[in-house]
Amino acid sequence: MSAAVIAKPGVRGKTGRASVRPTSRKASPDQATPRRTKSAPRAQAPAAATSRRRKVIVFAGLVGVMTITGALLMAMQPTPLSPDMSKSLMSVETSAQVEALFDTQVPVNVNRWKYIYVHHSGAATGNASIVADASGSSATLPDHFVVGNGLGAGDGEVQVGQRWNAQQPAGKTVGLDRVDSDCISICVVGDLDRAPATPRQLEQLQRLVTALQDRLKVSRDRVWVVDAAGLPAGCGRYFPREAFRTGLLP
């Protein structure tokens, strides 16, 4: 409601006109003009804080999921190879798997290798690391390849030694004075004087040897399987010599 104007008749000013004085009345509470406040921005502050908290929670959740996923992937990976090994093949069946045998740090010289020597480890269980320790040659695997029997390494798993990866001569095998520098040494895990090798182990051994024969042009008569009763240098009394030799390339 606007200010009231009250005229007093009978009282005149110097101009001869009626004098007017504006007077104002106090507005009722419900008519008072509301004051502008800064309450709106303050009301937005909690919302912004809540949004930030949500972002932090989402980010923390993503980090947690990624951490758990990484841990699961690491747990699913095979056991890391020992320092003296370059790779481990669960099968030597496809052409790609065979090619992996020759994917070495030092390129394979096909004219260097002339012989292949096969022997057993002399222990019921084992793998490349255990064979290396048992050899006493500064814990370095003396063989180029080890074929597992499921006890310490996978059944038929072909473990590729660092000597093959670096194209170095084989080391000394217990019961043997030396292995020629142009001879590839293969150890079959097991005490084959007491028990035979597994079918899968023999199958993988045959594939490994024939793959080496084919690539390096090693004839059957240059694949050595020797007798050395009670010593790892031999192939063991239960090794199927005739069947093995029959499966070799000419």
Automatic annotation (TrEMBL):
Source species: Humisphaera borealis
GO BP annotation list: peptidoglycan catabolic process
Domain N-acetylmuramoyl-L-alanine amidase: 111-222
Transmembrane listed as a keyword: yes
Location of the region described as Disordered in the Swiss-Prot/TrEMBL record: 1-49
Lineage: Bacteria, Pseudomonadati, Planctomycetota, Phycisphaerae, Tepidisphaerales
Composition bias type Low complexity, residue spans: 40-49
InterPro entries: Amidase/PGRP_sf (IPR036505), Amidase_domain (IPR002502)
Membrane-spanning intervals of the chain: 56-76
GO molecular function annotation: N-acetylmuramoyl-L-alanine amidase activity
Identification of the protein by name: N-acetylmuramoyl-L-alanine amidase
Swiss-Prot/TrEMBL keywords: Membrane, Transmembrane, Transmembrane helix
